[in-house]
Each structure stands twice: as C-alpha cells, then as structure tokens.
Write a structure and sequence with these properties.
The complex is a heterodimer of chains A (70) and B (265). Chain A has 70 residues and is mostly beta strands. Chain A is 10% helix and 37% strand. In chain A, strand 3 and strand 4 form a beta hairpin. Chain B is 35% helix and 17% strand. Chain B has an 8-stranded parallel β-sheet with strand order 8-7-6-5-4-3-10-9. In chain B, strand 9, helix 7 and strand 10 form a beta-alpha-beta unit. Classes of the chains: A mainly beta (70), B alpha/beta (265). At the A-B interface, strand 5 of A face strand 4, strand 5 and helix 3 of B.
C-alpha cells in the first residue's frame, strides 16, 4: 500500500495520508479550521463534520475564506 | 455626531428582518492596504460591509485573511458572489459564504458580460429562487429594469439592488427615473449598488428615495479613500434628509425671494 494518495487542493495536486480526514488536511496546511470553509467534491462540508469526512484519491477540495470585495 | 437625519426622524433601514444603523454600505476591495481599508470603513460609518469568497492562498505569499482586520462583531459581513457568470457558480459561492457562519445574507451577482459587468438577469432569477428556498436572505444586484426588479421581489429577495451605472465606472446615477420607479413599485428595500463616483452622485441617488447605497471603488479609488468615505457618509445623510424633507417644485421662470412691496419710489 502506498504511503500517500494524491488529491487536488485549490486546484493543485497534493499528497496526503490515505484515509486522512478533511480536518487533518486543514490542520496540516496550518490553517485554522474556524477561518476556512471546506468544499469536498463540490459539496460544502459543515465544520463539525470535517473530522468525519475522509479523502479518497483524486478528490477535489477547495479551501476558501473572505477577501476584500465589493 | 448629530446628523440632519435625526432631525427629520427617519425610520431605520431594515433588510430581511435585521435593522442597520447606516444607509451606506461599503465594499472592501481594491484598497492599497488593509489599514487604509479599515480607516475608510470606519469613516464611512457603514454597518454593512461586503466581502468576496476566494481560495485561501496556501503559499501564504499574500496577506492573512481579511478577518484579521475586519471584526465580524462590529460589522455585518455581506458576502458577494462577484465573478460568477452562471447561476450554478453563484449558488456555489453563496453556499460557501453561508458556511463561514456569520449570517445567511448574500449579495447575489450573476454577471452576463465581461466588458460592462452587466448582470445576467435570467441567471440571477434562477439563482435567487434556489437560494431563497434554502433560507438565504438574497440581496440581488440587478440592472435598473422594473420588470426584473418585480420578479426578484416575487422570488422572495430580501432587497433589490439596481445599479446606478456599471461596476467601477464612477459614472453616477444614469437613470434616475428607472431607479425611482423601482423604488415606488417595490415593497422590499431598494439599495443602489455600483456606479457612484463621488459624493454628489451619492446625494442625488439618495434623493430619489432609495433605501441605501452600496459602493466600493468610489471610496477605494479616491486619492484619499478615508476622506472620501467621510464625504460619502455626509452625502448619503444629506440626500436622505433632502428626500424626506421634500424638495421645492421646479419652475421654468424665476420668482423673487425678497418682497416686491416696500420698494422705494
């Protein structure tokens, strides 16, 4: 079994541990889970569920936040 | 500071069941730095401040998140769907914004043309219907077309936001008649969004009787954004007060202000 799997985070391929949860991914990226919103394969994942959803090879994950805008 | 609006006893602005202390809403984009942005937001007296939803910069080359500067306890954060060209994209951005957890309001934009950034009203209506059904308070950025505005109201939008002129153009209120008509016919608040260039534009817009104005570039793009934010605050108050006061009728001929009697022989 491979040590890592590849997922796509914000459009860029990234190697993560197999069966990593979204919460693990967020903290590994040194992001505050309260300050980002996570989308997993086009579905918004509610914050309390981040620790329950596991990633699979090829998953598309978007991490977004608020920036300046009109 | 006591404003003229206190004297004329205005009713507060209420959108989607929430009351706001200012009729001026400001954007947070295009500032040279976050410190200037914050000082301008403060000077504007705005209660509602708009933000955009974008990817987190994973390389951390850019500034930390906006919320390090903008306190969500002090300002009502209104997320937009700027940059979306389809109903589907706008719905996606609105759902992400909602999950950020501050409120369920969204400034819905579905853009239809890259050059003019004019709205795609068909996509807008489609997205509005879906988001209203999901419980969102939708503030819909639209053009100054009455029929579209009526349909947005029917779709359950919390406010309708006709443009004064294209986004970032600073051309001012191009069609006061249409904006006045929309205000007269709608029951939900009408907030003019986009196109204001300077304080006189804001004043004239408020004099049409609309409930508020949202602007970004007019402040961020001024040589001194903080001073312009202050000017806009005064202009919005002045325009609102003038509307409530009711202007004198226009006349095509002069009428003296001083008595005709008592003149010397």
């Amino acid at each position: 079994m491979k040590d890592t799997i590849e997922v796509v985070v914000n459009g860029e391929p990234r190697a993560v541990a197999p069966d990593a949860t979204l919460l693990q991914l967020v903290t590994e990226l040194k992001l505050d889970p309260r300050a980002v919103v996570v989308e997993h394969n086009r579905q918004v994942v509610r914050r309390p569920a981040l620790g329950e959803v596991r990633v699979a090879p090829g998953d598309a994950i978007e991490l977004v936040h608020f920036v300046g805008g009109g | 500071m006591t404003t003229a609006v206190d004297v004329v006893r205005d009713t507060p602005l209420t959108i989607g069941g929430r009351t706001f202390h200012s009729r001026l809403m400001v954007g947070t984009g295009k500032y040279r730095d976050n410190e200037t942005m914050m000082r301008a937001v403060e000077a504007s007296g705005a209660a509602i401040v708009t933000v955009a939803v974008r990817r987190v910069d994973l390389d951390r080359t850019k500034d930390a998140g906006l919320l390090h500067h903008l306190d969500p306890k002090r300002f009502f954060l209104l997320a937009n769907t700027a940059g979306c060209y389809t109903a589907e994209d706008a719905i996606r951005y609105a759902r992400l914004a909602r999950e950020a957890g501050f409120n369920d309001f969204v400034k819905l934009e579905v853009i239809g043309d890259e050059e003019t950034l004019l709205p795609d009203v068909q996509g807008l209506l489609e997205a509005a219907k879906v988001l209203v059904k999901e419980g969102c308070k939708v503030l819909a950025y639209t053009n100054e077309d009455l029929v579209t505005a009526l349909r947005l109201e029917d779709a359950g939008c919390a406010a309708v936001m006709p443009l004064a002129s294209p986004i970032g153009s600073g051309l001012g209120l191009l069609n006061p008649f249409s904006v006045r008509t929309i205000k007269r016919r709608l029951r939900v608040p009408v907030i003019v969004d986009a196109g204001v260039g300077t304080a006189s534009d804001a004043c004239v817009t408020m004099e049409q009787g609309v409930d508020g104005i949202l602007m970004n570039t007019a402040i961020a793009g001024a040589q001194d954004p903080v001073a312009m934010a202050h000017a806009m605050r005064l202009a919005v108050d002045a325009g609102r007060a003038a509307f409530l006061a009711g202007r004198m009728p226009r006349r095509e001929v002069a009428m003296p202000s001083s008595p005709l009697e008592g003149m010397l022989d």
